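Researcher: Please translate sequence to structure tokens.
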Amino acid sequence: KRSYRRLALKHHPDRNPNDAEAEQKFKEAAEAYEVLSDPEKRSHYDRYGQAGLSGTGFQEFSNVEDIFEAFGDILGGGMFSDLFGGRRGRRGQRPGRDLKVQFELDLIEAARGTTKTFEVRRQEWCPNCRGSGARPGTQPVPCSYCGGRGEVHQSQGFFRIATTCPACRGSGKQIRQPCPECSGSARVAAARTLQVDIPAGIDTGMRVRLRGEGEPGDNGAPRGDLYCYIAVREHALFQREGQNLICRVPISFTLAALGGEIEVPTLTGKQQLTIPSGTQSGEVFQLRRQGMPNPQANTRGDLIVQVVIETPKKLTKRQEELLRELATLEQAHVTPQRKSFFDKLRDFFADQPAGPAGGEPLKTGD
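Model: Translation complete:
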């Protein structure tokens, strides 16, 4: 809580006017506090990242006013009380609400980056009244309740308290003849076609922000932002772990024993991989810089190739003859690894106590 108070004070919008980056950090600090202060949300985040917060009641704050409402009691008192109270009472200039959309990408799109064109439905300034809310040919008039100030002042002893005008909601104006298109709201719903550039290497749970593409703000306040949330579909060949990719490739017993060359898939095509003789099932080989790019740095992960020895289910007559011959040779010439296993097996049984007379199985507690 102390850390959150410190960050909230540092990045508070009233201390950083017209600083979009500071306002974003202010929102992120509030979201982090909401997660870390709740054991269930924190557990989901630790295991699955931001994507795991879905369904836990986690809320992303669309604007700073939501944060004031949610955490005003936590931050209240002294300077914080002045800061948070003052912002809510500032002539109704609330920034526009943020919007969000979601895109589902395949792994190749996520690896290379892509541009998506999409349609979003949002509020726009009414073209009929040009955003005034008044019928064309008329104008809003100063609010009679607050005298056009947008605030109502009350004196209590030595103190003078300013609150947002309840009649005009801080705008300082009243509309006598509302616009018939927007009913005086100054806004209408409209569809807009937008584009977003998604950087290479993006992963599930990440988001791309389009500044100023959210809902319009009140009384000249800036628009909100539009957040594009990303979900990357699972791939048939590659399993992603951060910037690394894992590909499991089946190989034959003979290739594992004798060694050879195989072709493995990469994001950019096929690549030759040398399998040394004596390779064991489950061994991994690393192809450097063949994984996913880092969207925030000029680095790239690796491709981890794990070979799995495949046992054939059907054999030709000649294959069976050769394998039987090999089995005979293996019995005559036990390999060091196999000999070691049988030595351990013999020692294991030698250390076990004898069972009950008559060959009955041991029971629990014997």
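Researcher: Any highlights?
Model: The radius of gyration is 34 Å.
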